[in-house]
Amino acid sequence: xxxxxxxxxxxxxxxxxxxxxxxxxxxxxxxxxxxxxxxxxxxxxxxxxxxxxxxxxxxxxxxxxxxxxxxxxxxxxxxxxxxxxxxxxxxxxxxxxxxxxxxxxxxxxxxxxxxxxxxxxxxxxxxxxxxxxxxxxxxxxxxxxxxxxxxxxxxxxxxxxxxxxxxxxxxxxxxxxxxxxxxxxxxxxxxxxxxxxxxxxxxxxxxxxxxxxxxxxxxxxxxxxxxxxxxx
Amino acid sequence: xxxxxxxxxxxxxxxxxxxxxxxxxxxxxxxxxxxxxxxxxxxxxxxxxxxxxxxxxxxxxxxxxxxxxxxxxxxxxxxxxxxxxxxxxxxxxxxxxxxxxxxxxxxxxxxxxxxxxxxxxxxxxxxxxxxxxxxxxxxxxxxxxxxxxxxxxxxxxxxxxxxxxxxxxxxxxxxxxxxxxxxxxxxxxxxxxxxxxxxxxxxxxxxxxxxxxxxxxxxxxxxxxxxxxxxxxxxxxxxxxxxxxxxxxxxxxxxxxxxxxxxxxxxxxxxxxxxxxxxxxxxxxxxxxxxxxxxxxxxxxxxxxxxxxxxxxxxxxxxxxxxxxxxxxxxxxxxxxxxxxxxxxxxxxxxxxxxxxxxxxxxxxxxxxxxxxxxxxxxxxxxxxxxxxxxxxxxxxxxxxxxxxxxxxxxxxx
Lengths: 232, 414
Description:
Largest sheet of chain A: 4 strands, mixed
Distance between the termini of chain A: 86 Å
Mean pLDDT of chain B: 91
Radius of gyration of chain A: 23 Å
Shape of chain B: globular
Number of helices of chain B: 13
Oligomer: heterodimer
Number of helices of chain A: 7
Number of strands of chain B: 8
Distance between the termini of chain B: 44 Å
Strand order of the largest sheet of chain A: 2-1-3-4
Mean pLDDT of chain A: 87
Largest sheet of chain B: 8 strands, mixed
CATH class of chain B: Alpha Beta
Radius of gyration of chain B: 24 Å
Number of strands of chain A: 4
CATH superfamily of chain B: Spore Coat Polysaccharide Biosynthesis Protein SpsA, Chain A
Strand content of chain A: 5-15%
């Protein structure tokens, strides 16, 4: 005697399961498109913000309005903060991307350009406003093989939280070869290993411990800061 | 995310969702059949109570069998002590006038199948009931169960098993688990693919038991093995929901682990023993879905256990390693903590499958309670949530133990 087999149910269950996953994937792709748009609009905003900062800098330098330095520095810090957050988000979206990876790379190029603009501007503002601030160029690799990059990012974001506006960290993805400036900087500082740090003009190759960075940045402040006192 | 773990995880999602959809379709298609059949005659019934060192519970079990609502001259009770070394046999003998008591020696690797066969050999009943010493049936159980044998091919009818008087957290979680399992078995009845007739008050047609050669005396889960045999011989097995038997369940994690280890090991070994039935069309849905599921559920539970452990431990280890690089300065991190979240950050492909999975699970859990006339959250919200969210971890741990035991050839005696 042969018993019944619920063939119809097996097939229908398979069909529904596949349909649910396809629906999920489709929704994921729609969201990916939305993510591109969202990050792009953010990049446009960054450009406007950078334009505004540049204008403020010109105003100070050309009209000798140094008394407005605190306001300009506060704006600078605020814009940098939003830029870093957006960059972190972009990094995650890029990793998740299924179809629009190239789109994300182009947006990343925009962000990197904005960041380097901020970096150059920070050097000028620092000089004019006589602000005791240390700039760190952080070269990391978005390649999963860079085991220490995550650890280095953690240390740098911790130090950023500790020193606030006295420390500026500019993170550069070395794999972003579509942006010529990335290669120029790599050559300038002779960066071959990741992570690498350029603290002001001094190059550190490979993972750098928290204490070593702390020591280096504290040595660069003209006046010892509270944070340096606590640690020493 | 580790790509291998990611692929494994997606396989688990697909399989879990597939089974959830499948049983949902069975529910939608066949529904839950009504059970209010009436008994027209009183066939002779044999109740077998096998026991091994059950001095604490044997008396109440014998009493519950004696108190069953059924003509006393149409029932016989056979209590079998299987080499008990405590007072089990003397307690049984106290009831010697009302019940038949036999004592058999425990030989080598014999298990519960041996006392069951001893009782089966003596049984005069048209129907044969197995009553584990730790279980108490409702008084009208026989009156409700026997009418379901109206078709000749029905070899076994099962009451709904409920956790008796759940007190500990683990028992309360099992209370929900049993309700859901019974409901699934009710759905399995629709496809005739029940794979186990548990010890507490499963009623068999004696002739069918004898025809398939009785119990396997060396099997770790003789109740599962006899069900496989009945399925192999094309009999039907029916699960009821409105007839109940109350059974003691493990109160601690250790006891629960031991019980599940035995169940899963027995299920695995018996399925391997009957491997030729797997995907054999002759045995219908039992061969096509139920037998593979016994193996797959073990793999799924273990995979989920490992994946959960990986995701629970790995990020924390990374975080600890990161913290060590900043000399564990939590204060600075806490002081500056801010949420940076927006809706685009979510993984919608995963959320979509999870929502459907949750939806099917909620429907099944709700229906399980409704058809057993029980209230949701009867035993508190925490054991319920634990069952709903984390029970698979316990199953995974038990299956992992089974794998280790089988690799090291450790098999328990009872």
